[in-house]
């Protein structure tokens, strides 16, 4: 988990999306790796596209 979160793209996403959200996405992808759906060394590559562009539930203030 720490290695995946420390990779440049997830670390950058943590700044805008928050650690809790990024960690949840990475954990979900790690579960896929444990299930044999993806190779373990590809967790970061699969986690980054799974991250949302913005934090769900937040709307711009008018």
Question: What labels would you give this structure?
Answer:
single chain; 62 residues; mainly alpha
Describe the structure.
This protein has 62 residues and is mainly α. It is 63% helix and 0% strand. The protein has helices at 2-6, 8-17, 19-34, 43-50. The longest helix is centred in the middle third of the chain and has 16 residues, at 19-34. The mean pLDDT is 90.
Provide a short characterization of the protein structure.
This protein is mostly helical and 62 residues long. The chain has four helices and no strands. The protein is elongated.
Layout of strands and helices, then pairs:
Elements: H1 2-6, H2 8-17, H3 19-34, H4 43-50
Q: Count of helical segments?
A: 4
- So what's the overall shape? elongated
Gyration radius (Cα, Å) is 12 Å
**What is the structural class?**
mainly alpha
The amount of helix comes to 55-70%
The ordered string of helix (H) and strand (E) elements is HHHH
How many strand units?
Answer: 0
Proportion of residues in extended strands: under 5%
**Low-pLDDT regions:** none
Report the mean per-residue pLDDT as an integer.
90
Tell me about the biggest sheet?
none
CA-CA gap between termini: 38 Å
């Amino acid at each position: 988990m720490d290695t995946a979160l420390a990779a440049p793209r997830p670390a950058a996403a943590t700044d805008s999306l928050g650690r809790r959200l990024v960690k949840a996405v990475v954990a979900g992808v790690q579960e896929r790796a444990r299930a044999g759906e993806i190779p373990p060394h590809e967790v970061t590559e699969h986690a980054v596209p799974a991250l949302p562009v913005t934090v769900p539930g937040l709307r711009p203030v008018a």
